[in-house]
Every structure is written in C-alpha cells, then in structure tokens.
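Look over this today:
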Amino acid sequence: AQDSCANRCGELLGSCSCQVTCQSLGTCCPDYKEFCLQISPYSGSLMGGKDFLINNTALNASSVIKCRFKQQIITSGYVAKDGKAHCISPLLYETGFIPFEVSTDNGLTFPYSGTWLSVHLSKVSDEEKCTLVNETKWQYYGTPNTGGNLTLTWTHQTLAATHVNIEVWGYQETGDSYSENWTAEWKYLYTLAREIPNAGKFSFIPQPATGNYSTWDFGILRIIPSNYFDGQSNIPSIWSSDHALAWHLEKDFRNDPNAWATAKCLEWDRKEELLPNFREEIIDCPCTLAQARADTGRFHTDYGCDIEKGSVCTYHPGAVHCVRAIQASPQYGAGQQCCYDSTGTQILTHDSTGGSTPDRGHDWGSPPFLKPPRVPGFSHWLYDVISFYYCCLWSDNCDFYMKRRPSSDCRTYRPPRAASAFGDPHFLTFDGLNFTFNGLGEYTLVESDLTSLRVQGRTQQAHFPNGTGAQGTGLSAVAMQENNSDVIEVRYSEDMNLQVLLNQRVLSFTEQSWMDLKGLYLYSTPDQNITVMFSSGSGVEIRGNGGFLTLKILLPEKFMNHTQGLFGVMNGNPEDDYTFKNKTTMSVHASPQQVFEFGANWAIENGTSLFTYDTEFLLKSFFYGEKHNTSFLPVFSPDEDPADPLVGEMVSLCDSDPFCRFDVLTTRSLQVGNSTRLSHQNHKLLVEHLEPDMSLLLVISCGWLGPPTNGSKNGTNYLLGSTISFSCSPGYELTGSQQRTCQESGAWSGDTPQC
C-alpha cells in the first residue's frame, strides 16, 4: 500500500515524502496536499475569532469540522457552500506559529495539520480591527473638556451577519506577582449594544458602568454576530485595539478625574515598592542615536517615535527617535527603551519628561508567553501603560511614574562587533582583517561554542553580462541557527527572487513583516532587507544586491574569544583571524592562493549543514557534490590592462577601493563593482557608528549629574569631553566646582558643587 500523510506531515516515509520540500522535488505522497494544510489568511491577532480558509481539502457539506490548536484548544469550523472548510482562530496568550489539526468527524480523529501565525495586537492590519474613532477621546473621556458621542467603525463584510452585539471585555492578572500562581485572563464584562444592524458604524453616549465593572480600567471591545451567546469564546469576532477604558469608569472618576487618578497612582506606587527591581537586569542604552540604529541585533525602532516616519513622538516630547531592546530581560521579562534628541544624545527622564522609560513588562512579551509578566502587549499595558494614564495623563503626578521608571544611561553599554561579506565574496572580519575568498561551495562563516550559533554561506559562480561563467563567485544563500532555535535560510531562488525559509518552508511576508519565532525574531523591510535577531543578542542582516547577497553579522561582547570560521577569532586582534579548524594559524600577509586554502578548510559537511536542498540542481551541486569544489579555480589577482576600455571607467567608479576594482575586473560589470563599493562603504560606516573612537573602542559616559540644591545646571550631555556648568539661585554662594568635565576615566572632573 502507498504511504499516506494522514497524521504524518513533516515526515519522510518509506516510499514518498510528507516534508515541505517534496513539492519542488516531486516526491510527495499522493495525499500530501489533502493532509498537510495550506491556509489563507495565515495570520491573525492573538485575540482570535478570525475566520481562515483551508485551501486544499475538498470535503462534503455534511462533515462536522473541529479545529484543535496546540493539541488542546478546540474551536468549531464549518464547510462553506463551495465545499471548502474554514476554521476560527482561538484566543491565545502567546505569539508565533501555533500548530493546529483538523477533524472532519466531529473530533474523533485529527489527521489534517497545519500552522497558524498568532501576532501581537498592534501588528494586525487596521481593516481587521474595529476602529475607535478619535481614540484619544475614548481614553480621556470624562476628563476636563472631553465628552459627547463616541463612534466605533468596522468592516461589516468581515462578519456574515445582519445583526451584531458589541461586548466589553477586561484584562486582569491574578495571583502573586512573579509566582507560579500568577495568571492572565481576558474576561467578558457586559454587552454594550445588542442586535444592532451590522452596518459598520455605531455611535453612543457612554454611561458609567454599573456595579464592579467600572473597576476594570484596561480592556477591549468585541463585535460578534448576535446569534451567539454573550461572552462565548472562539467565535467569529472583530476586536478593537486594547485601550484605557476611561469612557466606562465610575461616576467618581467623572466627578473628579484628577483625585480618582491620583489615588490610583499612589496605590500603584505602593505596589511597585513591594515588587523586585527589574531595572538591575535590563541592558543599558546605546550612548548615541547612531549606535542605537546600528545595533540591530539588540535594539529595534519603537514605532511610537520613529525618525523614518517623521519623528511623531507623542509620549516623548523633544525626542526624534526611540528604540526598544528586542529581548526581554531573563528573570523578570522586562523591557528597555532609549530615546534620543536631534543632536543624537540620549534623553534622560532626570532632565526631561521626554526621556525614555523602561518597562516592567516587555511590550512584545517573551517566551514561553502564556503567563504574566510575559503575555504579549497586555502585561505591559497593566504595569507600564495604565499606570502612565493614572499618574501622567489623567492626573498631574508624573514624578511618581518617573521615579519608578527612570531612564537607564549608557555607562555599561558595549557596542557589538561587526563582520561583513559581499560582492565577489570579500570578507571583513570582526577584528578588521579583510580578504577575498572565491571558493565555490558551502562554508562556515562563523560558529560559536558560547550559544551554538552557526552561520553558513553558500557561494555560486558569478556570470559575465553576456551570461557566460566568470572566474569568481558570490554568496547565494546564508543559513543560520543558535542553540535549538528555528533554522532560517535566506537565498536567491533559481529565478533570482529573494526567498526566506523557516525550517525548510518558504515564508510569505504578504501579511506580516515581523515574526516571533523559536529562539529568534525575524523582520523583513518592504525592500527585502532581512534581519534575524537571536535571543543571545546576536544579529544577522542580509539583503540582495545585484545577484549576490550582502551579509552583516553583529555579535555582542560576550562572544569575545568564542568564534571561529571565515570571519575569524573575534578577540580584537586581526593577527590570528586566519585560524584553521585544527586551530593552527596563518600569517595575515598570506598570498591569495594561501587564503584560498584557508577558506576551503572551512567547508561544511552534510551532517552539519543547515541548508535546504529542495531542487535537483541543489542536490546535484551541493548535497551530492563536493562541499568545496576543488575543480573551480578563481582569478586571484585580475590584470589591469591600460588598453582595456573598462579600466578607465573602473578607476572613476572605484577610486582606490580594491574590492570594487577586483569585482569590475572579474565580472566585467560596473554594476557589480558599484554594489560592492556601496556595501564596503556601509560596513565602514557601521563600524564607525558603533565605535566612534576606535582607540577607546567604546563611548565613555560619566553618568547623570544633577543640579545643586538651591541652584541649577546647564547641559544634558554626559559623554566624554562634555562640560556641565552650575550656578546658584540669588542669595546663595557656590562652593566646589563651577564646571565639571567628563574624563576618560569615566569620572567627572572637580568636586560636587554646593550652594
């Protein structure tokens, strides 16, 4: 009997395959498409209630569909008139790819399987949510000068119903903080409007909620077809954004919002006093805006204040850009935020309300999610956002908030080290050595015993503009993994499209450009700049460039003395970067032929390869072929013939850049040379931004200096060479230093001033 993929998706069977690669290899079992599900859409908010289509199982209308997520949460599906099956996504307290199975016999067996991508509420498209028109009004309702009608709009086609109900849900966390019994819960509170026409719009004058509902101050609205029960879970729904429920708070709030919020602020302050200090555990901020934007393995743009989107920084007046630490802190799941002004200097809350504030709960949550303080978005709202409403927005007690959430400065910040590869591959190591290695094959670019990080590169032959093979190669694929994380591969497909593979499956970025994956985050910009951010803080950036990949790797300082591969031993010393697998080293003045032997030494083996071999060409060339193709000999030093018309153009394009010249001569293409020149320039800029003064290797900060009692200070820059001056209020005399300067030792000059 022929093997079947029922319950076997992802496996290789005796006579055929149920692995995702079987499609391009033509080795699938006959029923692969029936049992291994393709769905559309493939993603939705973690709140659930989204209807998705199962594209490939033709069922009969009498099938009773059940969908089971994570082996435990069961939702009802249905078969539409066209015979296609649909599932409804569940409420989840986590983000990332969630496995699901489908039953067509009312839950007896679940032979069909697939994955659903659960995303943070803020990553969902606006069409998918219902819109709180003028959201600020909802969240300030009842404070001075805010009242009247509130309006809600939604895409009415989303729900197949003539009439809908609008419900209010609240979020709470119960149990003891940071203990096993701390749990998160979304709870149905009451129905705001019943059996209203599904017209896509609803306006109302909000009334203070009755009973104990008005103590719920953080929540969300849900619209459902009115034939379902109140609060019924995992049914077709449209959710709003999560927001501060000012509009439904009790009468006491409306009578005196300032007093009500002040009491809440003080209560929050007392609770904070009893909680552990998470700030000791979060990483310090980069010292400068340039560093913050260059350290892409550890920091990512904060969408609430983005220089590329016009610096609309509502919560951080005076800032032009903020970043957030990508990884939550290990024990408390806390987050870091760093903001910068137009001079590129960090803004501290000590000096300005526009300063950055760290978070007790990381906004994106953190694995394993599910429980406080790690629930994506919502834990953060409860500890860091609603409290900001209490203290700063609904009352005038912001000093309480800033006392509990002061900015971190950059005294312990250390920039990561960067390595790059590009063009006809040129390598720039972490320690600044550069060389060209034109091998054809698959090689270890960097591996580390610290976190089992492995980044591997595949090269393919370059071609002349007329299509014939050139005597050089370029990076065509890069694959990577750390510890037991997901495996990511970025490659050029055979038709020269950039593809990203997650555990051998080609990813689509049509719905989501940011994904929370196992052991890493993955981000793709609209022009396909791919960034992988591993949980160790190491980052890998890849972009397609004129037919070859350009690669940047950023490693934090803890990787010092823990790397090997083509990018060498990262230890600040370029002299030992040509280290072979057996730990012998070669002089940095080696000939191109010797460098070629060094590169060949780092060829990988099939047993440790992270690459996906899903076409005949890849199997033949790289899986069954040699990992380093010994019969391919590149040009080691191309001739510059003065009579060659290309040489004149090359000189004006490349100037003195040796990599650019090399690539123009070996590929006879000015375009290839130009993209190499730009990549080389980018690398130099990156290193300059990360390490502004190579002799010091780090930006020195002397830390915050406050004004003397009964006096004032001038200056908010605390980096090397900056001077702060002090003066006293009228009637007071200054003793100590009138000016203090930040010195190389990291200490301020002079003595503490007093008035």
Residues 220 and 241 are 6 Å apart (CA to CA). The longest helix spans residues 670-690. The radius of gyration is 30 Å. The chain has 13 helices and 37 strands.
